[in-house]
Every structure is written in C-alpha cells, then in structure tokens.
Amino acid sequence: MDVADLVHAVSAPGSAARRTAGCRRSGIPLAHDGPNANRQLELKPLASPRHHASPRAPRRAWQALLCALAAAVGLTAAAGGACACGLEDPSSIAMRRGMLNIAYPQSLHVGTAVWQAQLAGRLPRDPLAQRADLGPEARAAQRLVTATALLQRFAAGLGGTQGTGPRPSVAIVLTGPVLWSRLDLTFGEVHAQVHVDGPRGGDVVVVTEMPVIEAIVGGRMGFAEAVASGVARLYGPQDSVDAVQRWLDASTRRS
Amino acid sequence: MNRVPGVFQLAASAAAILMAFGASVRAQAPKPAPAPEPEVAVKGVVDDPYGAENRAKGDAAGTKAKGYSPYAGRRYPTRVYFGDTHNHTSNSGDAFMAGDRLTPEQAYRFARGEEVVSSTGVPAKLSRPLDFLVVADHAEGLGVITQLYEGNPALTSDPTLAGWNKAMKAGGDESAKAQAELTKAQAMGTLPAPVKDPKVVVPIMKSVWQQYTATAEKFNEPGRFTAMIGYEWTSVPGGNNLHRNVLFRDNKDKADQILPFSAWQSEDPEKLWAWMDAYEKKTGGRLLAIAHNANLSNGRMFELVDFAGKPLTKDYAERRARFDVLQEIIQTKGASETHPLLSPNDEFANFGTAGWEYGNLTLTDKPLGKAMMPTNYIRGGLLRGLEQQAKLGANPFKFGVVGSTDVHNSLTAIDEDNFFGKMPIQEPSPERWEHKSKESDWDAKLGPARTRYTWHYMAAGYAAVWATENTREALWDAMQRKEVYGTSGTRMSVRFFGGYDFTAADAKSRQLADAGYAKGVPMGGDLKAAPAGKAPTFLVAALKDSHGANLDRIQIIKGWVDASGKAQEKIYDVSWSGSRKPGKDGKLPAVGDTVDVATATWTNTIGAPELSAVWKDPDFKPNQRAFYYARVIEIPTPRWTSYDQVRFGVKMNKDVPMKHQERAWTSPIWYTP
C-alpha cells in the first residue's frame, strides 16, 4: 500500500471506499429489510453499475454473502444501513485498523497481547487457524458468525448486574476484523448491537479481540484480568472509563 | 565444484574468496613493483575511478602494495555495506493512516541495532545492525497529515480540515470516512485550500522537512552508521508505478535549501530530473534517483516513449541515465528482475512474481499481459536499453540494481525469521498471512477478480554497497558508479569484475579484488571495444551470509541485441557447489533441499560457503552490444510464512509458498564496442 495505492483505491470504481457504502448498494437486503430475510443467503447477481453486464462477481459475492450471513445471524445494522467491517471488506482492514491506532493510541497493542496470551495458553486459540482447507473468505465468514454469537452472549451476561448505578454507554471494537458493536440497554437488559458503524459520542470504547470475549463468556477470564494483561483497553473520559471498568469487572468475574 | 572445459573457465578456492572480501590473511602473490603515487582517490570521486584513463596513470585504485603491508596504498572498496534505501515512517501519510506511529528517529534507532516497540506493540530488534538507512517518506504532503491530526491551527482553520481532524480521533466509520475522503480529495486534486496554498502549506512542509533532515543529521555517524537524506517521489499515473526515491549526497545545509519535489507538482519523470538538475546547480550538491517496482508499472517503467507518449530522444536517454542511476530489483512488493513468461529458459525466474504479476500497483488497470512484460521488468529494461543505444546513440536504461524494503512501519525488519511486514497490519500475528491487501473486481473488460494477500509479500530486500568507508559521500558515490547489488534479504558478499585478461588463477588468488580492479572494472562499469582476438572475461566471487545459507550456484546473465536487432538473453551457470554436472539439456541439477517446513529449519549440509570463477563469454561477438550481470543463488531455506506457521501454530492454504532460494543480483557490466 502506498499513497498512490490509496489514491486509486478510493477513486477507482468499485473501490474499497465505495464498498464501505454497504450492502444496500449490492442489492442484498438486510435482516431488517422485511419478512423475506431468510432469502438473504441466496447469492444473487449484483447490481452495481460496474457489474451490470456480468452475472459473475466473486468478490462482491463474498461480501454479499457475508452481509447476508450477518443478517441471518441476527446482526443489526446501524442506522443508514451500513454493513462494512474488515470481515466483509478485508482489503480495507489495513486502513480501518490503522485509524484505530490514531483514534485510540496503542490500541493495536491489544492484538499483539492477545496472540501472546494465546501462545502462552492464557487465551483460547482460533480453531479456524488450523483449517488449511478453508480459504480466507470462508474463515472470515465463520468468524463473523462466531463473533456475533459471542458478543451477544457477552452482553447477555451483563444483564444481571443492572442496578449498580448509572453507566456510560459502551462501544466495543474487535481489532482483528475492526468489528464495532454497542451495548444497548433495553427493558433492563443489555443487548449487543453488533456490527454498527462505530462509537457514538460519549461512548467508552473497549478495544479487545474475539478470544478475550470467548474467555470472558466462558468464565475463564474476568474483565479486570483482561485489562490488566493488556488484552483489553478502554478509551474515554477517565471517570467514564472507571465507571465502565467497575461495571464490567463486577459482572465478568472468573468462574 | 565442477568444471566444464572449453566452455567455462572456472576456478574456486575458499582461500581466494577470503581475499576477495578483504579478509586479513598472508599475501602469497608475488610482491608487485612500487607504483607511482595515485593521482585519483576513490573517496568522493563520482566518475568511475577505475577506468582505463585512470589506470593508465599507474594505480588509481591503489591496488599495488608498498613496503611490508600488502594493503598499504590500497584505495578500492574492501567492505560491502548493507542497508535500506526505502523506509517509510509516520511522516508518510499512508503509513500514518495505516497505524504507523513510529517516527524517523525510531526508524534510525532500529536500523542501527537498538530495540524498539512496533506500532502494534511487538518488541523488535535486528539480528545485526544495518550500516545505513534512507528514510524515504513520501514527498506528497510530507508530514502534513500528521500535522492535521495534531491540529495545526493553520490547517484546522478550514472547516473541512477541522472536520477531518475531529473525525480522525472519533473512531469507527467516522474515522474511516475521513481517511477515505482525505485520500480521495488528494487523488482528485480537491484538497481544501489551505493544503494547496503555498503560504500555508510551505511553512508546514518546510518545518517538517527541516526536522526530518535534522533527525538524519543526529543519527548520521560517519564511519559507523550512515543516515542518508532522501525522500520518495510518488508518481503513479493510472495506477502504474513510476515511483523514484531521491537520495542526497549532501548534508542538511544543502538539503534544507529546497523542499522535495512531489508528484503533486508533476508525475512526469522528466520534471523530476529537471528539478534534480536545478537542485544541483543551486546548491552544488548531488542527487540520484532509484526507481522501484517496475513489476507494478504495467509496462510503463521502460516504455519506449516519454511521459507524453513521444518517441525517446538522445537527450531524454542521457538525462534519464544521468539521474535514474539505480533500480530496486526486489522489495516487499516482489521482485522485478524478470518473469517466467519473459524468460522461459530461466528456471529461477519464478521468484517474487506470485501475486505481483496480476497487474499494476493498484490493480485498477488491465492485468499484466505478456506484451507488457518486455518493458515491465529490469532484464527487459536492460535489453531495451541496448536497443535504444543502437537507435539513439545513448542508453536511457543504463542503471545498477539494489534491493530495499519499502516498509511502511518504520522497521527495516526483513529477515525471514524476523519479518515485520510492510504495513502495521502485516506485523507479526497468527492471521497476518491471510489478509487481503489489494483486490480487484471481476470486470467484463479486465477479466477475473484478482487478490493480493499478505502471504504474497516478500521479506526483502537489502542494498549492498561496495564503498571505501561508511559515510554519506562514499556510499552515494558507490551508488552513483553502480558498484552496488541487491539481495532478497541475505547479506552474502558478492564481487563481480569484467575485463579481458582474467585467468583462472585470479579466482584462486588471495588478492582476488586486486586482480579485479587492476585488470578490469567492477559491477556497474563499462567494457569498451574488445582487443583483437579477445573476449570478455568475468571474475565473480560470492561468500555466504555468516548467519545464512550456503550457496547453490553463481550465474551470469547475458543480454545482447543480435544482428537482426532482436534482443536476446542467456543464463550461464559459472560456478556451483558439489559435483553436479549439467544434463543433456545444459541445465545443472537442483542443489537439493534440506528444509523441514514442519519445524522451519534447514541445514548447511548441501551447497558451498563460497564460490568463485573466471568465466569467458563463449558466444562473444565483438560488434554486439551486451550486458552481463551475476546472480548468486542460495540453497533452499524456509520462507517467512514457514516460520509463522510454526511460531503461531497455524496452517496456511496449500498455495502459500513455504520455502525459496534467496539470492543476490549484481549491477551489470556493459560491453559497448
């Protein structure tokens, strides 16, 4: 990637920047588009102008499939219908992840702390990393499904701790795929709104990785331990960060 | 070692090689008669100091010993210095936005052997320090994006720039959109007024540039570590790579008199050369350019028209040869030597081409086709140069070669077992190999979708420079006279001389380099018309990397233009390990393979630590222009992907290569009758 590389990635038809505009442009409906959501897994010819003449568009098809998968497993897209993270648009990850390091200094250190913890046996390893029979796209699809399920279980596990006082809003970003989620309090329960555009103003941002969520959900690691070992970091105003940390510490004790 | 009487004059001697690299051993050669005091010193001399004119004066290279010490009075380069001429730091906009938070200061510290922490939090250190480094950040908006991020009020007074400043820190899609908008505006020339307003941006860039040169000054330690001043001119018309790194021979006092010429000012290489010429006239300094990634130019790097599409002229050829002194033959984005379709008889052509042969830098134009290849690779460029020489009377493509990295994370860390990738996202992690770095859509006109993955990236390469000392001036002068070679990351030592009088004994001599300089020209030099009845002879020697693999073979690649005007190439095996003999097809059997991919290990139980030979061109025709360069191939060793697979306990797809044969390429020697 070079300056010029970026320049053309942005300016070229069908470029990464345009792809971030989301699934709607690809002609694949999202889950909340209506009752026919179960049809979304069908791989349809794509409707972007560049592909108008061709029934074949393998890469877009992958992106569409991932978007459809996201919808099928119950992901809620953010307002505006954006549907893009590094899992659907892998070639955009370099810049998306890079911008994390700008917005949240040293946030990319989390990924390194995670693989170091994996090698040390403190965090679970990714079974898909052993699947040489799967292509990167297939692994990405499965990781999206897994991440979604884990984040939802993680949020559900926080539900029983309501009543500990006012809590700042929280966004979570998994740095590997740059997958954003928000924790949403509805009717007294916490839900993960997975696959959103990003944080909202005032959110405390939790930077972590999927194996950490997996370990917390599985009761093998508490949030306090995750922060202490560098596999999770929090960003935001200090008092808000402290409040979120107290909340997550209290509700994610190691079993 | 094998010998083929009648075809090759081969000789090999471990002892001889030691002298070739300046090792301290007893002199065994007869003591030569005292020579007159040389009138030309090597240091600081830009033009070939070993040419016939200088040698006629007696001993320009100082090759004759005086008194007791056989080395007294010797002036030729006795050490090869390894470094990187192409390192990007967070001052480059793309590196910054990709998450590089390391500054030039950290790049220098790392290169000279200190431990630093990478942008992704990985402690990093080189196995051995480098001798020199050129931080070559992009001229286009040099440091401006960093200034925007830091909220320089001269920029954030503009509402759009203020919005980007805020968005960069917002995270999520807001950050990504700001990055995309900024980059697009850059591409479309619609950047907000302050960025284009010289009154605003020039003081910022001047401040950044002068800080940049001051950092180089701080880390430049003559004799120990050279921090050469340089930058990258990033021309990429239509996604076709025409980038050049511009290297200064000079110190801060001269470099600070200008601001780098950028592709925002012009993408036309001739405009860059004009600017370089103006710099030299203004300051009395010297510049040279190193082009890179010919392999990603879709045939434009050595095209036979100028930027405007007009046929080349003699004037163009002379200016290009003057300023485009070197080409990067390898870097993280692949090798540019040649391609199997272009060189079907070259069994080693398929190196560093996978993934990079899909098309241009951005994969936004048509795929690379066979018709583009003759002007898309360095060997093809050298051949085109011979053709143009015949046509124009000057050779526009007369360049030497180096390797370098083009890393965008400030870390020249390209050992296979210590590879930090090109971008922060490619720094060590279990999944890095499978990241997509670039992809194109299926297109009715352009064909199937193409994807470049991180695993396509090469842990490469180094610039190797035969210089008289480790200083800016001496290194630059060596580059200028093309006494340089490129490697894929190994630090093997390679000597290559051309002349008419080398004999087998020269390759056995303890004074191999003495013979080389006394009787010929080193890599990058010129051979004039052959004396009657003589053919060019080449003295070549290689010594393995002290930490690395044994050597498989030395080859000499010859290119020429035949009587019908058709470019030709041929590869000669001139020295090899073991007792192998060429088969009926003339091909030397493979050296063998000790790599254990499961453990990412190999042994030096095959191959040779040193090889040398004197080779005489058996197909020489006195009236044919030609070039010759040497290629030295190591035995198979694990690729970085193999190390990753073991360290991270992952399994990669079958199409990911796990081993390869590292190599070095010398600059050519030209024969011009």
Question: What's the helix and strand layout?
Answer:
The complex is a heterodimer of chains A (255) and B (673).
Chain A: H1 3-11, H2 16-19, H3 23-26, H4 58-72, H5 93-103, H6 109-119, H7 136-158, E1 170-174, E2 179-186, E3 189-194, E4 204-208, H8 210-217, H9 223-228, E5 233-235, H10 238-251
Parallel strand pairs in A: 1-4
Antiparallel strand pairs in A: 1-2, 2-3, 4-5
Chain B: H1 14-20, H2 52-56, E1 79-87, H3 93-97, H4 104-111, E2 116-117, E3 123-124, E4 132-135, H5 144-150, H6 153-156, H7 159-168, H8 172-188, H9 193-196, H10 198-219, E5 226-233, E6 244-248, H11 252-255, H12 269-283, E7 287-291, H13 314-323, E8 324-331, E9 334-335, H14 378-392, E10 400-403, E11 414-415, E12 418-419, E13 436-440, E14 450-453, E15 462-467, H15 472-480, E16 484-487, E17 493-499, H16 504-508, H17 512-519, E18 520-522, E19 526-527, E20 537-543, E21 551-561, E22 567-576, E23 610-616, E24 626-634, E25 637-638, H18 640-648, E26 659-660, E27 663-666, E28 669-671
Parallel strand pairs in B: 1-4, 4-5, 7-8, 8-10, 19-28
Antiparallel strand pairs in B: 1-15, 2-3, 5-6, 6-7, 8-9, 11-12, 13-14, 15-16, 16-27, 17-18, 17-20, 20-23, 21-22, 21-24, 24-27, 24-28, 25-26
Helix pairs in contact in B: 4-10, 7-8
Short synopsis of the structure:
The complex is a heterodimer of chains A (255) and B (673). Chain A has 255 residues and is α+β, with helices and mostly antiparallel strands.
Describe the protein in words:
The complex is a heterodimer of chains A (about 260) and B (about 675). Chain A has a five-stranded mixed β-sheet. The longest helix of chain A has 23 residues, at about 135-160. In chain A, a hairpin with a 2-residue loop joins strand 2 (about 180-185) and strand 3 (about 190-195). With about 260 residues, chain A is α+β, with helices and mostly antiparallel strands. Helices cover about 40% and strands about 10% of the residues of chain A. In chain A, helix 4 packs parallel to helix 7 (about 135-160) and helix 7 packs across helix 8. Chain A has helices at about 5-10, 15-20, 25, 60-70, 95-105, 110-120, 135-160, 210-215, 225-230, 240-250, and strands spanning about 170-175, 180-185, 190-195, 205-210, 235. Mean pLDDT of chain A is about 70; it is low at about 1-60 and about 70-85. Chain A is globular and about 50 Å long. Chain A has ten helices and five strands; from the N terminus they run αααααααββββααβα. With about 675 residues, chain B is of the alpha+beta class. Chain B has 18 helices and 28 strands. In chain B, helix 7 (about 160-170) crosses helix 8. Chain B is globular, with a radius of gyration of 25 Å. Residues about 1-50 and about 55-60 of chain B have low confidence and may be disordered. Chains A and B meet through helix 1, helix 4, helix 5 and helix 6 of A and helix 3, helix 8 and strand 13 of B.
